[in-house]
Design a protein that fits this description.
The complex is a heterodimer of chains A (103) and B (251). With 103 residues, chain A is α/β, with parallel strands linked by helices. Chain A is 37% helix and 29% strand. Chain A is globular. Chain B is built from 7 helices and 9 strands. The chains are: A alpha/beta (103), B alpha+beta (251). Chains A and B meet through helix 2, helix 3 and helix 4 of A and strand 5 and helix 7 of B.
């Protein structure tokens, strides 16, 4: 499921299960590239929640994570960050990370 | 900042691009179809299945617990996923040399696109599927308008920037471009992405100078995005009623 976080909802959205957090910006080219890949993966992988965080709309969360580059991806397992990737990564890499995240 | 805007030209002296957008019934239909597909996907429900097929969601015993496998996408294990095909609940399968059991088999189904589906979305003024299509039509016309206002505002900013007078410090530009590349990293640094990055950077750089701001926004991504929106806000207001659609709803 792809859901958009707000500063208020973010913590609850990453508390359980396998979650990919995508910090993005409306005008950012590489973010659009990653966004398309995440949409495909979401369809294939129903056990992963994808939480999108617009850095412009969620300044508090972006500051907490010290987001100084986008796209910025965090991979959560049951509320814990298990991996962090800054910048656009390939579809293949993303699939592999998500596979590891779940299994 | 050593670089600065010396004199900005008035927007009314710019030769504006043609801002009449042709939107056809097919364009909107396409958007509606895409949305309906996505909505159906997000409202999928599960039904039990007899036999594992591609796309089945299988619950397997695994070590001392259970795992879920979406068969056919190979996030788990290609060989195991192939071997699962045709299995039934209770059948056994070898996973990493260990015998595991199929605990349940499910498949995701799509809901029918009918009045009940439309009602379940709980949208204001939507009680039938036909209402829902009208709702989406209006939504997309509004969405297109906002998107095109943003698109043209960016384009007109570049025209305005070319016509305006600037003092540019090249060392400052070099240093900020490095910061910019750290903020918007691409997976691969090829010639094409570098050209794109430079274009994007210069728009952002001139936007910042147009606001008379210091370069802090290049250190914080959320500030940078906000700065860009602030810089084009006056242009958006200037062209808001100039962006028009030629759109005929009826055939």
């Amino acid at each position: 499921m792809i859901e958009y976080a707000t500063d208020e909802t973010f913590k609850d959205m990453v508390a359980e299960g396998a979650v990919v957090v995508d910090f993005f910006g409306k005008t950012c080219g590489p973010c659009k590239e990653i966004g398309r890949v995440l949409e495909t993966i979401e369809d294939e992988m129903p056990f992963v929640n994808i939480v999108k965080v617009d850095v412009d709309e969620c300044p508090k969360t972006s500051d907490e994570f010290r987001v100084d580059g986008i796209p910025d991806l965090y991979f959560y397992k049951d509320g814990e960050i298990v991996k962090h990737e800054l910048g656009a990564i390939s579809e293949e890499e993303l699939r592999s990370i998500i596979g590891e995240l779940i299994y | 900042m050593k670089s600065r805007l010396v004199k900005g030209v008035d927007y009314k002296y710019l030769t504006l691009p043609n801002m009449t957008i042709e939107i056809t019934k097919e364009d909107i239909e396409h958007e509606i179809e895409t949305t309906l597909k996505a909505e159906r996907l997000s409202h999928r429900y599960f039904v039990e299945e007899e036999v594992v097929e591609k796309d089945s969601i299988v619950e397997l015993s695994h070590n001392d617990g259970e795992i879920m496998v979406h068969v056919g996408y190979f996030y788990f294990d290609e060989t195991v996923e192939h071997n699962l095909l045709g299995k039934k609940v209770g059948d056994e399968i070898l996973v990493n040399g260990k015998t595991e059991k199929v605990l349940s088999i499910k498949k995701r189904c799509l809901p029918d696109l009918d009045d009940d589906f439309a009602k379940s979305l709980m949208l204001e003024g939507v009680s039938t599927f036909s209402d829902y299509k009208t709702y989406l039509e209006n939504y997309f016309l509004d969405f297109y308008h906002k998107e095109y206002v943003l698109y043209f505002a960016m384009e007109i900013f570049d025209l305005w920037q070319e016509e305006s007078l600037w003092e540019i410090d090249n060392d400052e530009v070099e240093a900020l471009f490095l910061k910019y590349r750290g903020m918007y990293p691409w997976s691969e640094e090829d010639e094409e992405s570098l050209v794109y990055q430079k274009e994007e950077f210069f728009s952002m750089f001139y936007m910042m100078l147009s606001l008379g701001e210091e370069d802090e926004c290049f250190s914080k991504i959320s500030e940078c995005e906000k700065m860009m929106m602030r810089a084009i806000e006056p242009i958006k207001a200037f062209i808001e009623d100039k962006v028009e659609f030629s759109w005929q709803k009826e055939d």
